[in-house]
Amino acid sequence: xxxxxxxxxxxxxxxxxxxxxxxxxxxxxxxxxxxxxxxxxxxxxxxxxxxxxxxxxxxxxxxxxxxxxxxxxxxxxxxxxxxxxxxxxxxxxxxxxxxxxxxxxxxxxxxxxxxxxxxxxxxxxxxxxxxxxxxxxxxxxxxxxxxxxxxxxxxxxxxxxxxxxxxxxxxxxxxxxxxxxxxxxxxxxxxxxxxxxxxxxxxxxxxxx
Length: 209
Hints:
Layout: H1 4-15, H2 19-35, H3 40-47, H4 52-65, H5 71-80, H6 84-97, H7 103-116, H8 119-122, H9 132-146, H10 152-157, H11 164-176, H12 183-192, H13 196-208
């Protein structure tokens, strides 16, 4: 059961009048996690809270505390969410676990987001200010640590993304995981990509062929 101190800090996190107040509340909540006062059952309860700030805190806490019994719930909720702030919190929690258990959920989410945000409307967003690249970049940072050749097709599909940073991460993973890519495609990137970094990365990969 949540203690009075935890409830007070959660209220401060939700209703704090300034960034400083809300920051102090989060620091206090993290200290309670470190002390062992916050229990996995407490966090499980908060994951189902109707308030998005509370739920967002709980997602981060699951990752920081590495609560094994809540991984499946985290994965299921992640698959169903399209809120950009919440999605980033899930990804940060996955990164905190430092495990490969989330590769398939993240890969599947990228595929869903790609279908939901075709190029002609991507910059307009899916919901409010949602922009696909805000989610893909942290996803790719996770995949760079835990993915493998099984995700080759999804990774190669990102070479067609509008965002230069997404294409750069894709190139890095193609190189890192030794994913097969044609010499002609690398030549085209080297000669035509709008990003100097991408052109240099493609050139380096061509030198290895």
